[in-house]
Inverse folding.
C-alpha cells in the first residue's frame, strides 16, 4: 500500500488514553503484516498442538521417541538465535520474519514425506519447525520496535501476542474438530499448515521493512548498556529471571493437567476448560492490561508480574490441599490469577528489552532474551514433571520461591546507559526504510 510517510513519533509521545485500531495496526507493521501474522498463527495452530499425536498416530512412533525428537528439535533450534540476532542487527526486519515462517515449510514437507516408523526424518522436521518457532518472536519484536516507539510499541507488541493467540486457538479448535478423521485428517492438517506458512511468509516479505544501522554516539560507548566492545547489554538478572518467568506459559498445558488428573483425579474436561479460558483471557485482556500498566515503569510491571505469579502458585498449593471435589474448581479459579500474571509478564518483558537495547545491537539483545525464553520453555516440562511426584509443596512451593526470587532480581537490577531509565523511548537513531506496506521515521 504505497503512500505518504507515517510519522509515529508524535503519536508515541502522546499519552495512550484509548486503543485506536487503525493506529494500532499501523504501529504493528501495517495491515498486510497483520494478515501475515494471522495466517501464520492459524496455520501453526492446526499442527503445533498435535505434533506429538502426528508422530504417534501417523508415523507410528512410540510416545517417548516422539517426545525426544520434538524436544531435540526445540533445543537445537535455539542454536540459530545468535545468527538471527546478527541478521537483525544488519538492518533486516520483515525478511527475517518471513524466513522464520518459510523455514517451517520444509519441516511440514518432511512430515508428509516421512514413512511410518522412521524417527530421524521426523526429528529433522521438528528441527525446521523449531527453528521457525524460536526465530519468529525476536524477529517480530525487532520489526515492531523499528516501526513503533514509546508506549505505542508496548501496545503493538501486546496486540501481536493477542492476535497470535487468537489464531493459534482458532487453528487448534478447527484441528480438534477434524481429529475424528484419524491419520488422513492429520496429514491434511499438516499440508494446510505448510500452505499457510508459505502464504504468510510471502505476505511478510512483501512488507519490505528494513532499519538502517544506527550510529551510537562515541561518548555513549563507555557505559554499561552500550559496551566498548559493541556487544549487547548483559542484563544478566533480567535474562536469568526470564527463564523462571516463562514457566507460567507451560502451567496451563502441563502442570495443571498433570495435577488435576493424576493428583486430584478430576475429569480431563477441567484441563480443557482452563486451557480455553487461558486463551480467551489472553486474547481479550492482553492489550487492555498492557495499556493500563503503561502508567508504571516496565521494570516495576515485570516485577509485579512475578509477584502475581507467585501468589497464583501459592493459590494452587492451597487449592490442591482441598482434595477431590472442591480441588478442581479451586484450581480453575486460581488459574485466572495465573493467566493475569502471564498477561502482565508478556506485556512488559519484551518491551523492556527493546527499551534497554541500544539500536545497533537490538537484534542480538532480543535474540539473547528469546534464547532464555526458549530454554525456559524447553526445560520447564522436565522440571514440572520431576517436581510433581514429590507433592504439591515441592511443585508449587518451588515455583513460587523461584519466581519471587526472580521478581526481586528484576526489581533491583539497575538500568544504566544511554537510554532514559525505562522511559519508553525507542532505540537511539533508528531509521526505517520500507517498500510497499509502510514508511516511518524515528
Amino acid at each position: 500500500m504505497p503512500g505518504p510517510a507515517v510519522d509515529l513519533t508524535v503519536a508515541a509521545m502522546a499519552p495512550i488514553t484509548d486503543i485506536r485500531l487503525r493506529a494500532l495496526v499501523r504501529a504493528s507493521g501495517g495491515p498486510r503484516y497483520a494478515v501475515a501474522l494471522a495466517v501464520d498463527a492459524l496455520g501453526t495452530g492446526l499442527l503445533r498442538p498435535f505434533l506429538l499425536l502426528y508422530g504417534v498416530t501417523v508415523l507410528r512412533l512410540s510416545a517417548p521417541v516422539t517426545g525426544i525428537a520434538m524436544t531435540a528439535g526445540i533445543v537445537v533450534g535455539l542454536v540459530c538465535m545468535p545468527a538471527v540476532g546478527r541478521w537483525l542487527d544488519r538492518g533486516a526486519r520483515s525478511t527475517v520474519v518471513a524466513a522464520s515462517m518459510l523455514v517451517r515449510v520444509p519441516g511440514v514437507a518432511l512430515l508428509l514425506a516421512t514413512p511410518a516408523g522412521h524417527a530421524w526424518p521426523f526429528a529433522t522436521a521438528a528441527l525446521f519447525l523449531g527453528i521457525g518457532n524460536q526465530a519468529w518472536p525476536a524477529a517480530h519484536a525487532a520489526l515492531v520496535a523499528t516501526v513503533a516507539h514509546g508506549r505505542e510499541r508496548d501496545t503493538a507488541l501486546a496486540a501481536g501476542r493477542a492476535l497470535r493467540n487468537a489464531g493459534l486457538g482458532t487453528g487448534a479448535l478447527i484441528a480438534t474438530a477434524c481429529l475424528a478423521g484419524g491419520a488422513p485428517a492429520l496429514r491434511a492438517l499438516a499440508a494446510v499448515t505448510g500452505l499457510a506458512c508459505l502464504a504468510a511468509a510471502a505476505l511478510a516479505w512483501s512488507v519490505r521493512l528494513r532499519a538502517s544501522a544506527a550510529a551510537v554516539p562515541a561518548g555513549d560507548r563507555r557505559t554499561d548498556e552500550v559496551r566498548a566492545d559493541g556487544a549487547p547489554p548483559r542484563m544478566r538478572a533480567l535474562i536469568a529471571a526470564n527463564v523462571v518467568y516463562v514457566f507460567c506459559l507451560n502451567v496451563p498445558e502441563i502442570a495443571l493437567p498433570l495435577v488435576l488428573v493424576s493428583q486430584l483425579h478430576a475429569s480431563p474436561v477441567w484441563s480443557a476448560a482452563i486451557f480455553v479460558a487461558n486463551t480467551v483471557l489472553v486474547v481479550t485482556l492482553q492489550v487492555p492490561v498492557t495499556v493500563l500498566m503503561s502508567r508504571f515503569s516496565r521494570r516495576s510491571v515485570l516485577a509485579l508480574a512475578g509477584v502475581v505469579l507467585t501468589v497464583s502458585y501459592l493459590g494452587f498449593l492451597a487449592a490442591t490441599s482441598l482434595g477431590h471435589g472442591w480441588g478442581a474448581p479451586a484450581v480453575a479459579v486460581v488459574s485466572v490469577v495465573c493467566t493475569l500474571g502471564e498477561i502482565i509478564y508478556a506485556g512488559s518483558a519484551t518491551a523492556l528489552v527493546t527499551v534497554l537495547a541500544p539500536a545497533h545491537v537490538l537484534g542480538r539483545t532480543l535474540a539473547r532474551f528469546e534464547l532464555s525464553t526458549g530454554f525456559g520453555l524447553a526445560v520447564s516440562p522436565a522440571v514440572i514433571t520431576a517436581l510433581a511426584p514429590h507433592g504439591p509443596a515441592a511443585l508449587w512451593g518451588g515455583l513460587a520461591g523461584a519466581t519471587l526470587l526472580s521478581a526481586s532480581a528484576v526489581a533491583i537490577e539497575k538500568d544504566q546507559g544511554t537510554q532514559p531509565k525505562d522511559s519508553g523511548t525507542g532505540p537511539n537513531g533508528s531509521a526505517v526504510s520500507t517498500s510497499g506496506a509502510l514508511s516511518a521515521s524515528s
In short: Residues 236-412 form a domain with the Growth Hormone; Chain: A; fold (CATH 1.20.1250.20). Strands lie at 209-212, 431-434. The radius of gyration is 21 Å. The chain has two domains: 9-14+26-211, 236-412.
